[in-house]
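Intended use. Records like the one below are meant for learning the mapping from a protein sequence to its folded structure. Do not use them to infer anything beyond what is encoded.
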Amino acid sequence: MSALRAFSSNIAKNAVRQAPLRFAPAAATIGATRAYSTAKAKTLKERLAEIIPEKQAEVKAFRKEYGNKILGEVSVDQAYGGMRGIKGLVWEGSVLDAEEGIRFRGLTIPDCQKVLPAAQGGSEPLPESLFWLLVTGEVPTAEEVKGLSAEWAARAQIPEFVEELIDRCPKTLHPMSQFSLAINALQHESQFAKAYNEGIHKSKYWEPTFEDTMDLIAKLPNVAARIYRNVYKDGKLPAIEADKDYSYNFSKLLGFDSNQDFVELMRLYLTIHSDHEGGNVSAHTTHLVGSALSDPYLSFAAGLNGLAGPLHGLANQEVLRWTLKLKETIGIDASEEQIKKYLWDTLNGGQVVPGFGHAVLRKTDPRYTAQREFALKHLPDDPLFNLVSKLYHIIPGVLTEHGKTKNPWPNVDAHSGVLLQYYGLTEQDYYTVLFGVSRALGVTSQLIWDRALGMPLERPKSYSTAYLKKMFGAN
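Structure written out for the chain above:
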């Protein structure tokens, strides 16, 4: 059980402050941690430096006693089927349960909405607070989150040559390609690469990895917004405000800071898209490339290239396009019968209904639910949202009757585009860039722990079809 911030120095001294997946404390207790201490708050790096030796000892002891235990078996179908369900990765920040959905260090999305610090006057958790949770396993205080916001704002400037590189990209180059290109260029600033070349001891690898991660996350709004402004607007960016939070500044750079509801949406969006355990393409790719001791810039850029695929992050764009096509074909006020006919025509035509189903989940994606609740609160009468609500009630029944979908319920991609459209961010090709900014929080927090725990080069064994046939005596 993870111990929370204690209310006295004696409790704090005796508490075991580790970061487990069993973490499910009472909301009232967690909420009290925000008023935690009058002493000067530690920075995230200072707190992490205290936690790492404890976690290293925990992992060492666990491996010594349980290292020979078997996690599972691998079938031939799994080898050919994308390694679905193979238990072979350690990912500290989150675990995805088929029935419960995602848990960030043991906390569900509703838990996070209740206990993670929000902006003054806001209700959605700040991405900074989630990053603190992912890195430490602890719910931060409002003071700690404020300090992290200020630190990211101070690190946000990008080098002039990276600005010029982005500015020279043709508008026809996909925003995700530009995003990946810019992150690779930022590798010029890598503190890990410099320290490694200078011969840093491996026990210290986590420190420059942490610094790279902090710099990378801090610079993402400037990089992402510059791409947006160049491709879709006039190319001019305002300045970041040092005393504002990450999502506010990102919204300002994009040109949407005047709408506080959009800023709140961005806080929710960046939080819930951040991490989805370690086996998805962007997370696994970042981890895999990082296992070769590539620095966080190179590792994350690789993960972004995976996120750009239509079976991963690009899906939110594809879902919105499908929904808009449905609207144009049968109308925004289509009846249930018309919608069902359209769905059956789609399925019988050999096409899929995007935004429904998930490789792991067997229920409605909690990230979808969080966005639906946001819409019910802020835009309940929006026609496109009402159409999505109809689809939410109709599609699962049709897919169940069709019989070829294990999970007929909506995933996160089924809703996010509708919300962005409502607030005027209508450029669908850009949506995956927003996803990428968020995903950085999860994958880079794991990179820090990969280096702190000395995770090795990842190198699974592969076989050819001929070898497998020989192994099983097949003709």
